[in-house]
């Protein structure tokens, strides 16, 4: 679905936000109803979120991953968001730097 969206709808838009939750574990099992992540078996949720964000940027949009500058979403319930580790903060700062001019954010990433 994501690939189809990026190849069809996104190319004709004036910007968009992808909100596909990256899941709760690298197994993306049906227990947590993660069918949208089944093709990403073995990819940790944060890494999956970063992949989606980069793909969205490349197509002219962005990705909803960061909650409040300290946590990232895994599913639709915001109180279950996970706190960033120092390596994750570095990856986010790299994505939001000049290396990715299409990246944008509305929150500060605290380290």
Give the SSE layout:
Blueprint: H1 2-7, E1 17-18, H2 45-58, E2 62-63, E3 71-72, E4 82-83, H3 86-95
Parallel strand pairs: 1-2
Antiparallel strand pairs: 3-4
Condensed summary:
This protein is an alpha+beta fold. The chain is built from three helices and four strands, in the order H-E-H-E-E-E-H. It has a two-stranded parallel sheet with strand order 1-2. A two-stranded antiparallel ribbon has the order 3-4.
- Rg from alpha-carbon coordinates: 14 Å
The beta-strand count equals 4
Helix content: 25-40%
- What is the H-and-E element order? HEHEEEH
The helix-and-strand class reads: alpha+beta
Average pLDDT, all residues: 81
Largest sheet: 2 strands, parallel
Low-confidence segments, ≥5 residues, pLDDT <50? Answer: 106-111
Oligomer type: single chain
SS field, number of helical segments: 3
């Amino acid at each position: 679905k994501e690939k189809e969206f990026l190849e069809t709808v996104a190319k004709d838009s004036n910007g968009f936000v992808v909100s596909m939750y990256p899941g709760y574990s690298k197994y993306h099992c049906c227990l947590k109803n993660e069918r949208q992540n089944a093709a990403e078996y073995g990819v940790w949720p944060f890494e999956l979120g970063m992949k989606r964000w980069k793909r969205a940027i490349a197509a002219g949009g962005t990705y909803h991953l960061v909650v409040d500058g300290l946590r990232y979403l895994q599913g639709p319930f915001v109180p279950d968001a996970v706190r960033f580790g120092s390596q994750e903060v570095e990856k986010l700062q790299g994505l939001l730097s000049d290396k990715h001019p299409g990246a944008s954010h509305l929150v500060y990433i605290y380290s």
